Amino acid sequence: MPSTVICVWLDVPLRGAFSYLHDAPLPSGQRVLVPFGNRQMCGVVDNSVTPDTIAPEKLKPVLQVFDALPPLPESLLAQVRFAARYYLHPQGQALFTALPTMLREPRDVRLPDRACYQLSAQGLAQPPAARSTAKLALWQALHEPQDRDALRKVHAQAAAYLKAGLASGDIAEVPWQAPELQVAGELALNAEQQLAVDSVAASLDGFAPFLLHGITGSGKTEVYLQLIARVLAAGRQVLVVIPEINLTPQLIDRFARRFPATKIVCLHSNLADGERLEGWCDGWLGRAGIVIGTRLAVFTPLPRLGLVIVDEEHDGSFKQQDGLRYHARDLAVWRAHTAGVPVLLGSATPSLETVANAEAGRYRKLVLNQRAHGSASLPQVGLVDIRRQKLVEGLAAPVLEVLQQTLERRELSLVFINRRGYSPVLACTGCGWTSVCKHCSARMVLHLSARQLRCHHCGACERIPLQCPSCGNPDVQPLGEGTQRLESALQRMLPEARILRIDRDSTSSKAAWDAIYQRVHAGEVDILVGTQMLAKGHDFGALSLVTVLGSDGGLYSADFRAGERLFAQLMQVAGRAGRAGVPGRVLVQTQWPEHPLYQALQRHDFDGYAAAMLQERREAGFPPAGFQVLLRADAPAYADAETFLNSLLAQLGELPAGLNMFGPAPALMVRLAGRERAQLTFEAEQRAVLHGWLRAQLPLIEQLARKAARGMRWSLDVDPLEM
Ligand code: ADP
Ligand code: ZN
Ligand code: ZN
Questions:
Q1: In angstroms, what is the span from residue 551 Cα to ligand 2's centroid?
Q2: Residue of 1, 308, 402, 718 with fewest CB within 10 Å of its CB?
Q3: Is 192 in the pocket of ligand 1 (CB under 6 A)?
Q4: Quick check: CB of 233 below 6 Å from ligand 1?
């Protein structure tokens, strides 16, 4: 009769762990099969949990122990415990989010062969006949321990050779051991790069967070690679987290060429389940020297972790937008802290959160201000004032002219259309007034159908003004519109231009991207047209002109992060111009040429603009000056979502000092996938006040949600990026 009570996490939306019986204790991290309701589920044992006080005779037994793999490591359980607590998410679900799919399933999992092989004494004494070059090469290679992958690289006949050798006793299985580190093709660093490498290298034996602020093309990746070399040389592992869009074959090749003998694992959401499991286990079991991947890679257990790198740390794709809404950059910093190793956050346009941390002295800032390629200089940024221009199909004459000239010189242009779904904010074309809410610091959004301005932060409503409340000018317009038809108009106005449009569809697959690169590099394109996609780190070679259209919508947006995003995007697209010795030029069409954002862009002054934006955030109490949690509710009908939030409001009681609540208000994108979304915003200057209080409200929220209208769903978003 089983008698030991075992606590198990399951992938269910409930806050606690579940108790089962087994005939002996099981280690934490052990995967097991347990009955749950009328199903059988995979569970993970956690002995740090105190079991419920349920009479043992009511508990069900563990059905099976999945022991083909070792128990999941304590470090992973600790990371999940932290993430669940921080993101106010059920711990069982958080744990299963962190696992590769195959480890979530109610099945035992066996690993593919990762054994190593080497010649036995008998095999050593019998070199193959010199005629067989394949056998000779394999025999040579097997003087050192080799795994199957490595042998396959030596010769395609490896499998057959191995099989025969094992049968005859010429080859023996030996314990796995790390291959000798090889480092190929290191570049001589410039002074700034050297200083960055030296600073981090001097701090390898403890937690030390660094911001590597380097302009586009300044050689950040080279800095990473040289630091990685040192960490690998010390026998330790490196975690590199990068945005989805940057996980290109070019980047992986660059790593593989630099470290030809090191096992490099690449993890992302498009892998087959088996591949993902294999890579994850190679990290966990210590065989991979480098794990490089998108946000999910941040959960890969690495027993000998020596360095964490987050590239393009400002990138929005690090934030998971459903389930456990974690931020991979923040979890990466937590991991480095817990493991006692340095973490390097790299970007040309760091997030204000990171800038604020650097300013406060919590992160050390390393700067790369020079482009690594000697001759390339920074592009010249021009502002085209469209208040004094008649636009033809959204294009100002001077912009069209420069496009024409660039075309005549047969040089490549890029037209960047900023069209992120900015909700329309009203602006005065005369004095620059915008529709700011009287009750909070947010901007009110135009709702034409209701003939209203609505604040999506606090929920306030107002009538649409017939003239500017500040100067009386009747010309009050919604911002950020008028770029829709631009792409086809461009083709009509420049009929001889070979235009290539880049959108989400044309970039959804790797093959599509390769085709784009190929056409661009083969000189078959004159003008690239596209949206946000183009702002990321793609190297299209010699771009001589970048024009930016429709960016004003990001200046005065209902989303307080819009300015930060826009500035980062414009810095990044501007960074595409003027590479490889071709002087670049950037032209921005705007009705606010005197706006500090554009002025800073013209001076390439990230620091100045970041300081101004941080000041604004401090005044408004927005992150990083304060902390936010959103309670979102969505339902097929808006009223159902709102009713749930109101029922909660009625029962929340008094808020603790220092905590503010706004709403219910519609989300900025009210309708999404057939559902309508409302939200409450909680803000506090102290994170502990905010999280502690909300954690205490969870039972109430859950209880009210059970009584809410059918189809109503809710979630908490800690440190939300999308409003
Ligand atoms: P970033 O990651 O900052 O955009 P990269 O590391 O990709 O920059 O470097 C940009 C280009 O400059 C690459 O082609 C790289 O090979 C080259 N590069 C980087 N560092 C050096 C260096 N120290 N000497 C010469 N070329 C370099
Ligand atoms: Zn005005
Ligand atoms: Zn408001």
A1: 20
A2: 1
A3: no
A4: no
Task: Name the pairing type of β-strands 208-214 and 364-368.
Answer: parallel
Number of separate domains in the chain: 5
- Ligand closest in space to the Cα of 560: 3
What CATH number is attached to the domain comprising 593? 3.40.50.300
Atom of ligand 1 nearest to the CA of 224: 6
Please check if 281 is assigned to a binding site.
no
DSSP string covering 642-679: HHHHHHHHHHH-PPPTTEEEEEEEEEEEEEETTEEEEE
In this structure, the answer to whether residues 639 and 580 fall within a common structural domain is no
d(CA 321, CA 514): 28
User: What CA–CA distance (Å, rounded) separates 398 from 388?
Assistant: 11
Which token pair is 165? 């050798």
Ligand at shortest distance from the CA of 465: 2
Nearest-ligand number for the alpha carbon of 374: 1
pLDDT tens-place string over residues 309-358: 999 999 999 999 999 999 999 999 999 999 999 999 999 999 999 999 99
Number of neighbouring beta carbons within 10 Å of residue 396: 21
In a domain, 499, yes or no: yes
Q: Is the CB of 346 under 6 A from ligand 1?
A: no
CATH number at residue 87: 3.40.1440.60
CA 276 to chain centre: 18
Q: Which domain holds residue 702?
A: 627-718
- Is 357 a member of any domain? yes
Query: What is the four-CA torsion angle of 680, 685, 687, 689, rounded to 10 degrees?
Result: -80
3-state secondary structure 558-625: CCCCHHHHHHHHHHHHHHHECCCCCCCEEEEEECCCCCHHHHHHHCCCHHHHHHHHHHHHHHHCCCCC
Q: Among residues 46, 74, 104, which one ends one of the domains?
A: 104
Q: Are residues 202 and 314 in the same domain?
A: yes
- Ligand 2 centre from 199 Cα, in Å? 51
ipTM confidence: 0.95
Residue 287 DSSP class: -
Pocket test for ligand 1, best of 224, 366, 373 (most atoms within 8 A of CB): 373
With tokens 């420049």, the residue in question is 494
CA of residue 236 to ligand 1 center, whole Å: 25
Residue 207 and residue 75 in one domain: no
> How does pLDDT run across 24-58, given as a tens digit for each residue?
999 999 999 999 999 999 999 999 998 877 777 88
